[in-house]
Amino acid sequence: MNWLTPPSTGQHYLKQRRSPSVSLLTQTELQTSLFTLHNKTMATAGKVIKCHAAVAWKPNAPLVIEEIEVAPPQKHEIRIKVIATGVCHTDLYHLFEGKHEEGFPAVLGHEGAGIVESVGPGVTDFKPGDTVIPLFISQCGECRFCKHPKSNMCERSWTTLSTGIMAEKDSRFTCRGKVIFQFMGTSTFSEYTVLNQISVAKICDDARLDRVCLLGCGVATGYGAAINTAQVTRGSVCAVFGLGGVGLAAVMGCRNAGASRIIGVDINEDKFGKARALGATDCVNPKKHSKPISEVLSEMTNGGVDFSLECVGNVAVMRSALESCVRGWGVSVMVGWTDLDDFSARPIQLIAGKTWKGSLFGGFKGKDAVPKLVLDYKSGRINLDEFVTHTMPLDKVNDSIELMKTGKCIRTVLNVSPK
Ligand SMILES: NC(=O)c1ccc[n+]([C@@H]2O[C@H](COP(=O)([O-])OP(=O)(O)OC[C@H]3O[C@@H](n4cnc5c(N)ncnc54)[C@H](O)[C@@H]3O)[C@@H](O)[C@H]2O)c1
Ligand SMILES: [Zn+2]
Ligand SMILES: [Zn+2]
Fold first, then answer.
1. Three-state secondary-structure class, residue 209
2. Where does the Enoyl reductase (ER) domain start and stop, copy by copy (predicted)?
3. CA-CA distance, 164 to 180, in Å (whole number)?
4. CB 3.0–4.6 Å: which of 84, 121, 247, 418 could bond 243 by disulfide?
């Protein structure tokens, strides 16, 4: 079943769904590297590429570095050499929490940046050597949703087309004679990947790929949830639940929107230092209080915050975030990912004038917005360096997953392909 299309009865629907580090390159180094890639490209275009990828053969098991075959791009598709990728909690969700057994084997990873190796017939927007960020939400530019200013839910994305496998069914990957799914349509834990041109953003050639890869998911998601979805206002009081990569980006969004007070909420106090560095004015650990966190926040803010953002992926926390908002005008945004449980709240919460909404990829239309976010990083308007706590080669991917599972990182960036 398509998880975004409501079935005939909501009840039925909800029950069912129970290496070497990449450093900043000089312009000359970058041009030499693009020239080398261009020559290599000529050699590989139109052929199957054998390369390394981290394959998730089944849920709850370590990823295995395998040699996979990546088919040439078909009509309107692009084959990309992935240079760097972040590891996001949604990768862990699919592997450990989501219970989508039919979504395996897959190559995970959806927060990447790379360089176009070759293009298929009919590709007009890209050429070999272009610097790009794969998008897990496409922007075809033609559908009802792309044309509507209020949504980024392009109807040609895997999110609307696929079933509950969290992947594009039509994959260009094989390994040991089996088709391997492209998780979230992207699969950046692979040296090469293939995407339709509607799911790729072209960015400036001198961007630092081991930083801007975070704009492929986590940072764009949290930042956009505050700026686009909550529409945080100047002077407002905000609370962000969950201070991982997504939550910290939401803190940064509240800061850039001019919030006067930003309260970070997390059960892991190790996250508080980064939260303060990115704009949090207060940090609260719900475990240190005997009262519900919504009451604690209500007392701290004379009746509740103007905006709250849930960046954990837990329905109980979503409820707390809503209850922490002020009645009358409070807005609460669900950003954390889960499709396992129903959420609930007392109707009076909404009757009393609060708004409860959700946000996917920060509400950004990726092809238009991601190149601008890259420029915002280059101008210093948004931070990315602060998010990267670890860097390692692709073959250490299981270590990066362990770091996130145990709350010891914000973002690990994997250097997927050596230059
Ligand atoms: N909506 C989207 O488009 C989108 C995109 C990317 C990620 N996500 C989701 O956003 C969530 C966060 O992703 P991330 O990569 O930042 O994950 P993360 O694991 O790095 O961060 C989650 C944080 O939540 C904290 N936390 C856990 N339980 C908590 C609780 N009860 N109260 C307060 N804090 C708690 C953890 O200590 C951690 O710091 C995940 O659910 C992920 O799947 C959604
Ligand atoms: Zn993600
Ligand atoms: Zn569209």
1. helix
2. 58-414
3. 16
4. 247
- Is 366 part of any domain? no
Domain count along the chain? 2
Answer whether residue 336 is part of any domain: yes
217 CB within 6 A, ligand 1: yes
Mean of pLDDT values over 395-414:
98
**Pocket of ligand 1 contains residue 266 by CB under 6 Å:** yes
Average pLDDT, the chain: 91
- From ligand 1's centre to the CA of 222, what distance in Å? 10
Give the pLDDT confidence of 124-147 residue by residue, as tens digits.
999 999 999 999 999 999 999 999
Q: Which domain holds residue 163?
A: 10-216+384-415
Residue 371 included in any domain: no
Strand residues in 214-259 grouped as ranges (E): 237-241
Per-residue pLDDT reduced to its tens digit, 345-391: 999 999 999 999 999 999 999 999 999 999 999 999 999 999 999 99
Q: Is residue 296 part of a domain?
A: yes
Considering the domain architecture, whether residues 202 and 245 belong to the same structural domain is answered as: no
Tell whether ligand 1 has an atom less than 6 A from the beta carbon of residue 364.
no
Which residue's CA lies nearest to atom 10 of ligand 1?
336
**Tokens representing residue 346 in the block:** 């007392």
Q: Which residues pair with 107 in a beta bridge?
A: 55, 182
Looking at residue 169, what is its pLDDT?
75
Ligand 1 close to Cβ of residue 247 (< 6 A): yes
> Are both 393 and 352 inside the same structural domain?
no
List the residue whose alpha carbon is closest to atom 32 of ligand 1: 266
For residue 134, the ligand closest to its alpha carbon is 2
Ligand 1 centroid to residue 250 C-alpha, Å: 11
Confidence of residue 39 (pLDDT cuts 50, 70, 90): low
Closest ligand 1 atom, residue 218 Cα: 6
Q: Both 212 and 229 in a single domain?
A: no
CATH of the domain at 238: 3.40.50.720
Query: Does any ligand 1 atom lie closer than 6 A to the CB of residue 119?
Result: no
Q: Kindly give the number of the ligand 1 atom that is closest to the alpha carbon of 358.
A: 1
- Tell me if residue 365 falls in helix, strand or coil: coil
Which strand (E) or helix (H) includes residue 15? helix 10-16
Lowest-pLDDT range of 96-100, 175-179, 241-245, 362-366: 96-100
Judge contact between 168 and 162, C-beta under 8 A: yes
Residues 305 and 388 in one domain: no
